[in-house]
């Protein structure tokens, strides 16, 4: 069998931040997987297709210690030094890199009572939209097509105060209050199971 | 039982219809394939002059380099794709100026430029029965020297003993054995001996206990030369040390580590390559380095009807390789995030095994102060987070040395260190080592810290297999899917050892060899 090698230009390398020995052309994808579609084995969520403004806010949240600083948030703690080391200009370039990814529909891993989830979701829809499409004006990201296990984790994190606990993080505080209304783990699964139907 | 000729004829029919891959899959499905069991270093059949086989190897770790070497010698075309800036995988020796590529914390090693001032951040010792690795060292010209793993003059620091005062390993072991032997000698009666022992053996049991504990004529432990003398003065009579208090010794949390240096893979005589463990990958690279592509990050692994397609990124371009076989030593927990078309169960296995969290610190010391404490190589143990302190067996009596300042086995401790900043890690290690070596911090010139769970392109140490996970996944993942093989120490019963990585390669290579021999024209006749 013969070997075939083709080269397809992607992005200009200069458009990407340099972190360590690696151009961060590859840096995000070490953890977040090829094309940023997530890697459940190391709890790295899908970042492909994410809104740039939301991603930028999360970089800021990690840098400020609003995210990833809590002792119980191990995956967040892994992200935090990465956010801390990037300059503003590098973050802008990283946003551009992430925007170049080809998003895939992630595997469905969460099951729950979809009908109950739909009821619960009515409270979410006010900000995140009836189709979970998100609303930039309200700083509410799209929820459809995300890695579902990550949504459950973040709802837990909000509820437990691992996220949204800092007074300066007004969006996070608002979300934390909403997450607190989902009183048990079954409710978390139900609402995410419903969001899974909105793809 | 199916007669052999029938089985062969049946498979030949399948082969005529669907080719060699169909034969193999069919045979696997029927449980007829001569599954590779134990595979020592295989003697691969050389490819024939007109035969062309391409093997793409994902990851330039020890298993990848071993595979590249064995295949290349027999005429296979080999391409090694390595995501990071270097070959070797977790075989990492740090020297002056080297990059420590921790995610979010990249930094340079600040050791002085000196051939003795290096730190083996990954594997650091080779037991005498790791014959595969030792065989390659011989063949590739990797010079070895003794590695000292067990030193009775090193310290034991157990926070539960003697108010946290350090004691010599020899005192700790000798006195505990002495007291326990005395207790046994006092307690055992001739009538207590059970089969296969008889009353007639009683005297022999006592004789053994006397030897075990160095007991006196009355089976009393009164100290032993094994624990050493109070003063080393060759011009004066011997004065034994006073034995330590047995009540204190029995509080020890360290009883299991008393025998660390006796274990199968930790006992003398151990070895290290002269000049650093990375002389092993360097030896392989002298043979296969021309096939290595660095900074090549894999985006997709696609099984095809015949062979495997690899999509990867290098230097800002995306490239495709179609190969006959793929040997993959990318950590399974990272492969899980790479695009593929593997069968669902195989894919599920990739994310099933947790990643290890071993952590190491190395310090450059401005003086080899430990040699003034009669310590030349070996390990001191502590119940604190740092767990171990190693003294370099090379560069003896030189001014400076690089010593190991922490090596943690526990998952929680590894995670705790990973979350600290690099300066905080060093600070904690110095603070704890002061309990074993007062003034320790004053000798530190600089240090390196390696949390394997945070190292770029690794994000973990040895795969943390449990018995349950082995039962569920190991054989499934060890077998090829199509023409794709998972290798690496992760795919062995010896994770965390280079020997395990090599045997994973042997297993895959033997399987490829079997397939090639079966499909060769002469075999089909």
Description:
The complex is a heterodimer of chains A (199) and B (525). Chain A has 199 residues and is mainly alpha-helical. Chain A has two domains: 81 residues, Cytochrome c-like domain (Cytochrome Bc1 Complex, Chain D, domain 2, Orthogonal Bundle); 83 residues, Cytochrome Bc1 Complex, Chain D, domain 2, CATH 1.10.760.10. Chain A is 47% helix and 5% strand. Chain A contains eight helices and three strands, in the order E-E-E-H-H-H-H-H-H-H-H. Chain A has a two-stranded antiparallel sheet. In chain A, strand 2 and strand 3 form a beta hairpin. In chain A, helix 6 packs antiparallel against helix 8. The longest helix of chain A has 15 residues. The N terminus of chain A is likely disordered. With 525 residues, chain B is α/β, with parallel strands linked by helices. Chain B folds into three domains: 188 residues, FAD/NAD(P)-binding domain, CATH 3.50.50; 168 residues, Polyamine Oxidase, Chain A, domain 2; 85 residues, de novo design (two linked rop proteins). Helices cover 32% and strands 19% of the residues of chain B. Chain B has a five-stranded parallel β-sheet, with helices on one face. Chain B has a four-stranded mixed β-sheet with strand order 10-9-20-21. A four-stranded mixed β-sheet of chain B has the order 15-14-13-17, with no helix packed on it. The relative contact order of chain B is 0.17. The N terminus of chain B is likely disordered. Classes of the chains: A mainly alpha (199), B alpha/beta (525). At the A-B interface, strand 1, strand 3, helix 1 and helix 3 of A face strand 13, strand 15 and helix 8 of B. Strand 1 of chain A pairs antiparallel with strand 15 of chain B.
